[in-house]
Every structure is written in C-alpha cells, then in structure tokens.
Fold this protein.
Amino acid sequence: MSADRSIDTLECVSLWGIGFGDIELGGLVDVLGRSRHLTELILSNNGIGRNGCTSLARLLKKNSSLKALNLNFNPITDECAAILAEGLANNTELNWLDLGENKIMTRLGWLSFLKLVCDSTSINGVLGSNYTLKSFRNEKTSGSLASTLNYVIPTLKVADFKLLCASLHQNQTNDKLRSARQKIVWSHVRGDLNIGDSSIPNGAMPHIIAWFGDDKADIKLEYPHYALHKEKVDVIRIDSMFRILRSRADLCNAHDNANQMKQSASRGK
Amino acid sequence: MKNNISDDEDRRLFSRFLDPSLINDVLSCKRNNPYMTYIEIKHTDIKDDLDSMASRRLGNILGNSTTLYSMQLTRCCLDVLELFEGLRNTQSITEIGLSFDMDEIESRRVGAIIGQIASLKYFCFCHCFVEDMAGFLNGLQHNQSIQHISIGQINFQAAEMNNIAPILF
C-alpha cells in the first residue's frame, strides 16, 4: 500500500497528543527506518514508556537519518532512559533528544545519559562515548544548553551535572578528536578514570607536550564556569600528561579521526 | 461554476456567511495581493454555515490564488468536500492546517484530494474527530510532495497506530 507514497520526501513527522500509550511501536519504527530524509520525529504527550522506548531504541540503533527526537510530556522512567541511551551508543546522527516535562526520571536515568556522552570509567570508555548528542532540548524550540539544564538540575549531583552539560556542549564543536581529549581530561580531573598500565611509545613525548604541556593548548581542565586554582591546574596538567598518555599515546596524533578512535576503543574493549 | 465572477457577485455570495473582514481577505486572495500569503478561516469568522455553492466558490478562489501559500481552517461550518474540490488544483498552497471534524465519507474524500495537491509541503491536522482516520490517510499517502506531517489531538483508536503507520508512510 505504501508503494505509492515516497517516504523519502518526508523530513518531519509529528504525532503528538494522540495518547496511544505504552504500546510497541514496531510498525512505526519499521517504516521510519526506511526513510532516508526523515530528520525530526515528534512523539510528544503520547504516554510512551518502556515498550515504546524499546522500539525507538531499535530505530536509533539503525543509525537512521533522524537528527531530533522529541519525547517530551511522556512518562520516561530510568529504565526507559537506559534503553534509549543504549540505543544511542553507536548512533552518529541524533543531535537533539527532548525529554522535557518529565517528572518521573531520577538521577539514575540521567546517569545513563552521562555515561552515554562521557563514560569516565576508562579512556576507552570515553573514546567510545557518543559525540553526536548535543542537547536534551530541540534546537528549533529552545536549543540553549541552559534550557536543557532546567529539568536536569534538580536530579543530578553538581559534578555529574557539570560533566553532562560540558560533554553536551563539547559535542557541539563537531571536532571529535578534540572533544575526546577534553572529555578524557575532565574525567581524569574527577578522579574517575582508570588509566590502566602501559608504557609510552618512543617518540610520543613531543606530541604529549604539544597536547598538554603548552599553555597555548586549547584543552581545558575546567568545565565551563567551573574554574580551578592555577596551582591545582598545573599539578593536574602534569599528572594528566603522564598518566593519560602512558595509557594512550596514540591520542596525541593530530591526524587521528573519530573512526580510528572508535576502532581503537572497540579493540580496547 | 463560471470563472469570471465579479468581486461584487462574490461579495454578495459571501455576505450571508462570512464576516466582512474575511470577505476582504478572500477577495485579496482572488486579486493575488502579494501581501495576502496566509489566510485563516475559523468558526468565529463565519456567521452562518456555508452552503455547497459558497464553499465551492471559496475553495476556487483560494485554489486559484497565486500568492496564497498557507491556509488554516479551524472548526469551520462549511461543506468541506466542496471546499476541497475547489482547492484541488492549487499550485501555490504549500501549507495546510486543518482542524475540524469529518465523517467517514468526508475523511476519505478530503484525504484523497489532499493526496493530489502537488504543491503541498506541510500538512497539519489536529484537534478534531475523524471517523475514518485510515481512510483519510489512505488518500493522503498518494501525496509525494509533503515534507512535514503533523497530526495531533486526533480522536482515533490509539491501538491502530501500527496499522496506520504503513498507510501514512
């Protein structure tokens, strides 16, 4: 029946306030997954929960053309958040995930998303994080990071909240290598990073110095709006230089790209 | 219906049904006023239910306008089939917003007409009851120019969503 309809012309589909509840959206997802130009899907206020999110995660795993997914006014639980975050783990398309007006999700749910955009547990974890998601609001409606934060603030601890915001902000640069370096340094500052045990290859030191040691380097140890004392910054910088690069000297290669990082991360795993 | 109808005749035809300000807007569309790119027809602009003839004439005027690109119909009391028959051949309208109830026959036929409007890029359908949503979407699916579909607060069986999706796309 749909043979007559060119799904390729569709760029935005909005099905809002229909209240179809927490049903499986397999049919919808199958059809949308075939569309090459669909960039925005709005499913506000429909009672979507675990079943719906499971279907949507399947769509996100397909890495469809979708750039914005709006799920505001839906009962998104912590479990739903974990499902969506898993769906986004290897997604390199979705920039905006709107989860506004949702009073159910707690700290655990947001931690799933924090781990998605900055998995601080190891360098490979950070490298394998999502570098595409930019905001938890839709750019077209209220894209500023500040508006995202209004509904995240009450649930997360300050340090987690800052890392989440900083990571989303960093993703907006579209420079994945730089973002990876930045997230690694932040994770290290938090004390989360498990550096592992390895040695620095010969010839890596000039790159290490160029990356961390130079005051002109654009890698920041502070989160935005979160200044550290200079003495502490210096100590952390030197410590970071040694410990992080001891683990992953290949990060100093300026010609690295995101694919190499991903491959490298998956090898590490 | 003859094409060369004077403004006075149109004004006489519509005066029974429409507010004067809306009549002026409609006639601006007829004259292809470059500033008349959007028109909204809502129930508060209608004094009395438009009969078939007035509805068809209204559709013809809007459908023949070369400057009108966006129209919104909100809970209007008119003959929706005749209106859309008049609109069928529009080449300039790219945005249509609908918000009124439709019975089974209207759902199917209006959907089929919208499915043939080749200039349409944005279609919004909300806040109403549709007796045959699948029938409406069946017609709509033939449209190959729509880029943005927005459907909201429509009263139909939610469980049908998965059945409706393949029709819609």
The mean pLDDT of chain B is 88. The CA atoms of residues 33 and 128 of chain B lie 31 Å apart. The domain at 7-168 of chain B is CATH 3.80.10.10 (Leucine-rich repeat, LRR (right-handed beta-alpha superhelix)).
